[in-house]
Amino acid sequence: MTLRLAFMGTPEFAVPLLAELTAGHDIAAVYSQPARPQGRGYAEEPSPVAKFAIAHELLLRTPATLKTEAGQAAFAALGVDAAVVAAYGLMLPKPILEAPRLGCFNLHASLLPRWRGAAPIQRAVMAGDAETGVTVMHMDTGLDTGAVLMEERLPVGRRTGGELTNELARFGASLMVRALAALERGNIAEHPQSEDGVSYAKKILKQETRIDWAKGARDIDGLIRALSPAPGAWTQANGERLKILYAEPVAGSGAPGELLDDNLTVACGCGALRLVRLQRAGRGVMAACELLRGFSLPRGLRLV
User: Fold this and answer.
1) In this structure, CATH architecture of domain 4-200
2) Do 299 and 262 meet the contact criterion of CB atoms below 8 Å apart?
């Protein structure tokens, strides 16, 4: 059955879901964060969700807040059956949550109640979680505290944050479509979240992105994969900022940050990492062998 929906999302993660919903439902309006300064010129650029809405001639709204009476009245006037939310970035006040006939439903990129909050994919990788997933949740006034309708699990393995984001976006789009269909038929049960295992995925801070080579190889590996491809974990080499986008744990020991050979094996506080994909400032992503052809990083050099 076709539902009349409001969609609320901002980053690339939310675009596959919006595309799926557009194909099978009536999208009354798309809500996204306002355009932000991007790139070296800091020109304002619409979000990925906003770009999709514009390209597909969907009604687009980009309020800075949903707390105003006028904004809440405009949302209620849409007369939607449900609101679908995916990484929108704004908390929904009670009048918004209560306006749709069926409610507001969030696609969250973790297995709730683990990793509630802003950066669930990155925090799962950084913590060394064996698996993650996506959850469809009936939203309430708390931070990712609503009842769970469906979830889909995915092993983390050696995936990067970017790879997991792409896979979870695809899995999540299908999951939400199935959840909405079951919800409309009335044959889906909601389950309150457990009070055990609650954890919070705080926003990634700039100071976290610099690699501390005194930490163990396992922790540094998790940081590198979590932040790849963006914002990217980084270090300094020859006075230049160098992003590390993928590395492999290997045997080895030495002073933290010391290059142990001529193939970019770096000593950590415990163990070592062989750097595989890197990016110099203002350059594209390169394999280690390609980087070394134009950038001297000899054995014994210290990365800091």
Assistant:
1) 3-Layer(aba) Sandwich (3.40)
2) yes
